[in-house]
Structure prediction request, 129 residues.
Amino acid sequence: MSGEYQVNESKADIDKLMLTYFNFINGKYIEKALKSFAEREGYGQEIVFVFFQSDLDEYDMAQLPRPLDEKHVLIELGYPAVEIEQIAYLDFKTFYDYLDENVKKETKKNPENTELTDLLEEVKRSLYI
Prediction:
């Protein structure tokens, strides 16, 4: 985490950010990501990350434009994809809705694989949705 951020607040900007995130983790990383989220742990690949409050130390928290609470996740897209790191704060329900939509796309590719759907249910329980 650097210290200079652009906070995305519009649905269109957040949609783009989440699309980028899923482009990186779909396929071989989605299962690992869901397992992490079920434990309320962040997960990312290369330039895109999801953070829960417990993932951030005091220094990281101090770098943010506003603190991350225990009811939100922080999505971060970093350099070199963008000059200024882009972040978005999502409440758990919104975050879950993006996960749900994405898992449905993934399971269409391989309908026999019910593991992703099961993991998504674990995430839902963990986030109290």
In short: The mean pLDDT is 93.
